[in-house]
From TrEMBL:
Taxonomy of the source species: Eukaryota, Viridiplantae, Streptophyta, Embryophyta, Tracheophyta
Domain of life: Eukaryota
Name used for this protein in its record: Uncharacterized protein
């Protein structure tokens, strides 16, 4: 799957179908807080380039609508050091309408639950993520995609508050001044390095929910959310640092931040 974890020698791919869906979704949720970085990819092909951002979204929406019911979605959970959950597990969900396939809506809801459980450190990352996120958002939005690009990107930000597209980070200079934050080679490893830095939230605010080929929603609500999110992340960093200096345990810190920040993300 793509993006790949750093230590591929320890990867254990687990195929998830109806027979083991419940067990694997339980494990997925249980790992979310300790492995807050989620890398996701689908088996869907991206449509060709379009002349406008709105035209690109129309092409993505049409591709998702006509996609076959059976799809494969890959997911890896990592910590900021690039260590995979459960000793190297990578999930490969076989989704569809058949009795042998895992249920797409249930799996996508579990992904969203992981996003909520990983607050405040949870980060979602894709590569060429428009089709990946469109597939997830469709199932989280009652089986349909919104007709407008801005509404779709807003939903991406609602369901997955910290969402980054590796292709955007490697190529797009228009988002922020200066060079892109990632190099073209080994950009997932570089992304993990950025996540470990205290300045990550400040640097990456402009790239949040910005998908390759679709741009970012220019509606007021999303722009405001991105601004508030950056301030919230900085506040979380300061609280974490202060509590560590006072000798509080990591479990205590996670519990306190989770209960304080979770209602903000839930709105």
């Amino acid at each position: 799957m793509s993006p790949a974890p750093r230590d591929v020698s320890k990867v254990q791919v687990v195929d998830v179908r109806a027979s083991n869906e419940e067990e694997e979704l339980y494990l997925l949720r249980a790992c979310a807080r300790d492995f807050p970085i989620a890398a996701v990819a689908t088996s869907l092909d991206l449509p060709g380039p379009a002349r406008t951002l709105d035209g690109a979204y129309e092409a993505v929406r049409a591709a998702i609508d006509r996609a076959p019911s059976r799809q494969v979605v890959g997911l890896a959970l990592l910590n900021p050091d690039g260590v995979l959950a459960l000793g190297g597990r990578v999930w490969r969900f076989h989704l569809g309408d058949g009795h042998a396939d895992a249920d797409p809506s249930r799996v996508c809801e579990a992904f969203r639950a992981c996003s909520r459980a990983a607050v405040p450190e949870g980060v979602w990352v894709t590569r060429d993520g428009a089709a990946d996120m469109a597939y997830l958002v469709r199932h989280l939005n009652g089986g349909t995609l919104p007709p407008k690009r801005e509404a779709f990107l807003h939903l991406c930000n609602v369901f997955f508050p910290d969402l980054y597209d590796l292709k955007v980070l490697a190529e797009w200079r228009e988002v922020e001044d200066g060079d892109p934050p990632l190099a073209r080679d080994h950009n997932f490893g570089r992304f993990l390095e950025l996540v470990r830095k205290w300045g990550f939230s400040e640097l990456m605010t402009g790239y949040n929910a910005f998908l390759s080929g679709l741009g970012a929603a220019d509606e007021y609500e999303l722009l405001l959310h991105k601004k508030v999110a950056a301030k919230q992340q900085e506040s979380t960093r300061k609280w974490t640092e202060m509590l560590r200096q006072k000798g509080r345990s990591e479990e205590y810190i996670r519990d306190m931040l989770f209960h304080c920040v979770f209602p903000l993300w839930d709105n």
